[in-house]
Design a protein that fits this description.
Blueprint: H1 2-31, E1 34-43, E2 49-58, E3 62-64, E4 72-78, E5 83-85, E6 91-98, E7 101-109, E8 119-126, E9 129-135, E10 141-147, E11 150-158, E12 170-175, E13 178-181, E14 184-186, E15 188-193, H2 205-233
Parallel strand pairs: 1-6, 7-15
Antiparallel strand pairs: 1-2, 3-5, 4-6, 7-10, 8-9, 8-11, 11-12, 12-13, 13-14
Length: 234
């Protein structure tokens, strides 16, 4: 009788302990699984691949998908969150868009009044070359939109009659969507054109006037000399 009770007790003990061992073994085996995740970084506008990386992580571990690219900002992730469990997603796409900026140019007179009839042209400088981006109309205010990060040059091609045009371009730098001029962050650019003074309208005007007066005097002297010569001859 005692032997039977002992055997029954052992059987009951094994019956209650087996499921525990089974669950524990399953949990331990899952934690040792390695996952290989393919992460692709894509330009959303052009669908150009910016980079690709393979992430090898254990189950239930976190991986930060943040990655910085010059001139780009992250917009969305397809397949997982920025900081999420990489357990089931084998392919993850992270999308970026270029930083975009808007530069407003205001053209004014020295007295801050609007100056119409001016044309400005914006160039982007890359690898030592200048590429035209956009040309303004003959307005007193113009906005250049959707500008990517980089170095720009603003030329003034035309001004109204009676005003002095800028003799050199204005340098502008855009970094992470912020516009800088002379190392200062700006939202707009104001160009003031000076009015030509009367003495500046034609720098050679006085010289030409002196020549004309001199020629007239020489002609008058020649006529007088001829007149007195003829009079003495008589």
């Amino acid at each position: 009788m005692k032997r039977r009770l002992f055997i029954m007790g052992m059987m009951l003990l094994l019956l209650f302990t087996l499921p525990v061992f089974k669950i524990k073994a399953k949990t331990t085996s899952q934690s040792n699984i390695n996952y290989q995740i393919n992460v692709t970084y894509i330009d959303q506008e052009s669908q150009k691949q910016l980079a690709h990386s393979i992430v090898k992580q254990n189950a239930n571990t976190h991986y930060n998908l943040n990655r910085s690219f010059k001139g780009y900002q992250q917009v969305k992730i397809k397949g997982d969150e920025i900081k999420g469990l990489l357990n089931h997603n084998k392919y993850i796409e992270v999308y970026y868009t270029p930083y975009r900026s808007c530069l407003t140019v205001k053209l004014k007179k020295e007295n801050n009044q609007a100056l119409k009839g001016t044309v400005v042209v914006l160039y982007k400088k890359e690898n030592g070359k200048e590429q035209i981006i956009e040309m303004s109309h003959q307005e007193s205010q113009y906005s250049f939109t959707s500008l990517k990060d980089g170095k720009y040059l603003l030329y003034q091609n035309k001004v109204p009659k009676g005003y002095i045009k800028l003799n050199k371009p204005i340098e502008i730098m855009i970094k992470k969507g912020k516009i800088y001029h002379q190392n200062k962050s700006i939202h707009q650019l104001i160009i003031k054109n000076k009015q030509i003074k009367k003495s500046q309208k034609n720098p050679h005007q006085q010289f030409y006037l002196y020549i004309i007066v001199l020629l007239i005097l020489i002609r008058v002297m020649f006529i007088l000399k001829t007149y007195y010569k003829n009079k003495q001859g008589k």
